[in-house]
Structure to design on (609 residues):
């Protein structure tokens, strides 16, 4: 048996996390935010067929960024899980919490045991009968679950876009207001200058609280265009604020936003050290044996400090992202 | 029994993550075959399996200008007893189709539930609706899985009707217990009272009827079926139980209010009273 030279578990986990985060950062962002009548999902996606936002069950939807084949697989598994559960028990017994747990276990197991972590980040959202019952779960590549409120931004420039949404978001926004905010945030992502995203380039869907059974609805191009046009001045106001934000290159220096994505900030201070290695070679490298020896010990060291104390940690995604072409991996 | 998540780790089982069929029934057959409604065997030596489950009866469907209508009475029988006065046998299969069934109620209800899920599952996985013929064929396949039970007396005979978005017309499909699928024209009926209902439909159906006229025809056909078939329930004015009538048009599935059916049923009864016939 040929023994690979020793790699410390910390280093191995950091390499994996770094690899996954780089893959995720390449995709375009998804914004999920609550509005007065439910939960809205928006992303830039010119494809009419390859969706990043989908229905899972009556009140549950799924949104993802990262590698399309990987999150599509998870989405199909989620639909099967939900339908199986609803068929075996009752439709009301299918919950976002159960699905989020199943996803978390799957992502976590793959992160530790497989040769390559899944390069995906997922939101599972369920609309309740009251706004207080709404649930938004954000799951990261390592299986970390975060119970989010109000809004989530994930993908490429999640930190930067998240700050935009955080500034603009308030309770009981109308659907039009929420979508204008989401689209303005998505448009502000690339570099310092904001741009207007055409309705044809957007994939937008909502979970509507008042719909009788299946709450999920995609907004067609025309409906979306009307909603976005409702308050033109609101959009321009939001755009003006976008200019005040620091350019993308400055992002890593900025403070993290406490309200969102604490789970996203995986061990990042290691990135500088890791940069000397070849990131592309990581998936092939025979790192398996050290992992198998102590799988349970490694994950807490990676995950648990991140969960509670990582609010001030800053992922170094900004520079990585600026060098890659956004949207090549959807 | 590997229900939803792997028991040891809680992660989703590999079968869930395997790329493959968009069919929930196929997935179930592979992953949990014990849950398929037809996948049971009746032990030999049973007196008569058919007495195990109540028997659901008459369903009619007819086309009208702009869609298709399906109606079913509310009775289920077990031998000479009434098992249920208010059973529902007409359901939305999805947004643009309706399904009703006659025959063994327990298996029929399960079949309908699985069929609804099958269509919804496909829609969610593929992001598009099945064609109407595709839906009709799926139902035939599912029915074939029940052949074993049908041969032992637990047969289900569904009736499927829907709005064909490609052809802009309402269409009706009937089935036999072995899974044979037949497209019907204009109108059809299944179940024990269907002989009488179909006789009525033949006389009453007109080309170019609107939904209101079609409702009246369907209720009258069921009225005639209940008149001569003891297993078909007529309008129950005491309890306020009336047939279920649903239309499927380009606007989707719509169930007609019970109050409206009560009005139509009363009108039919009044006309017949006036006619004064004793037969």
């Amino acid at each position: 048996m040929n023994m690979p030279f020793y790699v410390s578990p910390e280093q191995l986990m950091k390499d994996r996390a770094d690899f996954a985060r780089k893959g995720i950062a390449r995709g375009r962002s998804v914004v999920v935010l609550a509005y007065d009548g439910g939960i809205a999902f928006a992303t830039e996606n010119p494809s009419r067929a390859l969706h990043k936002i989908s229905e899972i069950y009556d009140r549950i939807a799924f949104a993802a960024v990262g590698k399309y084949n990987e999150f599509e697989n998870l989405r199909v598994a989620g639909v099967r899980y939900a339908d199986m559960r609803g068929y075996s028990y009752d439709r009301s017994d299918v919950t976002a919490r159960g699905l989020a747990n199943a996803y978390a276990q799957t992502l976590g197991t793959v992160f530790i045991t497989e040769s390559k972590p899944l390069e995906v980040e997922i939101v599972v959202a369920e609309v309740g009968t009251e706004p207080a019952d709404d649930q938004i779960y954000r799951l990261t590549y390592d299986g970390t679950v975060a119970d989010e409120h109000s809004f989530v931004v994930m993908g490429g420039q999640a930190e930067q876009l998240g700050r935009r949404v955080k500034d603009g978001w308030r309770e009981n926004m109308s659907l039009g207001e929420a979508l204008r905010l989401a689209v303005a945030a998505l448009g502000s992502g690339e570099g310092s200058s904001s741009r207007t995203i055409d309705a044809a380039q957007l994939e937008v869907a909502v979970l509507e609280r008042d719909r009788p059974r299946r709450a999920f609805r995609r907004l067609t191009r025309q409906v979306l265009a009307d909603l976005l046009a409702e308050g033109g001045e609101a959009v321009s106001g939001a755009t003006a604020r976008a200019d005040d934000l620091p350019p993308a290159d400055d992002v890593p220096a900025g403070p993290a936003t406490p309200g969102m994505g604490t789970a996203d900030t995986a061990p990042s201070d290691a990135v500088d050290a890791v940069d000397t290695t070849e990131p592309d070679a990581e998936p092939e490298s025979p790192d398996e044996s050290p992992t198998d020896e102590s799988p349970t010990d490694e994950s807490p060291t990676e995950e648990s400090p991140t969960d509670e104390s990582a609010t001030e940690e800053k992922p170094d995604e900004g520079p990585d992202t600026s060098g890659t072409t956004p949207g090549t991996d959807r | 029994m590997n229900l939803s998540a792997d028991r040891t780790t809680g992660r989703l089982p590999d079968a869930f993550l395997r790329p493959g069929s968009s069919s929930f029934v196929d997935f179930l057959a592979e992953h949990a075959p014990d849950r398929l409604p037809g996948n049971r065997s009746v032990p030999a030596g049973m007196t008569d399996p058919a007495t195990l489950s109540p028997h659901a009866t008459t369903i009619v469907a007819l086309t009208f200008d702009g869609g298709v209508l399906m109606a079913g009475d509310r009775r289920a029988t077990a031998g000479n007893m009434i098992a249920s006065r208010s059973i529902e046998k007409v359901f939305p299969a999805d947004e643009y189709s309706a399904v009703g069934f006659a025959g063994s109620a327990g298996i029929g209800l399960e079949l309908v539930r699985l069929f609804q899920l099958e269509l919804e599952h496909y829609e969610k996985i593929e992001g598009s609706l099945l064609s109407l013929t595709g839906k009709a064929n799926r139902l035939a396949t599912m029915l074939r899985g029940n052949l074993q039970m049908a041969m032992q007396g637990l047969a289900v005979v569904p009736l499927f009707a829907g709005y064909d978005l490609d052809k802009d017309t309402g269409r009706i499909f009937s089935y036999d217990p072995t899974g044979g699928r037949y497209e019907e024209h204009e109108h059809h009926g299944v179940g024990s009272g269907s002989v009488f209902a179909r006789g009525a439909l033949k006389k009453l159906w007109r080309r170019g009827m609107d939904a209101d006229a079609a409702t009246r025809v369907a209720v009258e056909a069921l009225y005639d079926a209940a008149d001569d078939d003891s297993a078909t329930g007529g309008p129950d004015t005491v309890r306020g139980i009336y047939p279920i009538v649903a239309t499927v048009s380009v606007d989707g599935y719509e169930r007609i209010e019970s109050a409206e059916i009560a009005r139509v049923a009363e009108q039919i009864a009044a006309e017949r009273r006036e006619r004064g016939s004793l037969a």
In short: DSSP finds eight helices and 13 strands in chain B.
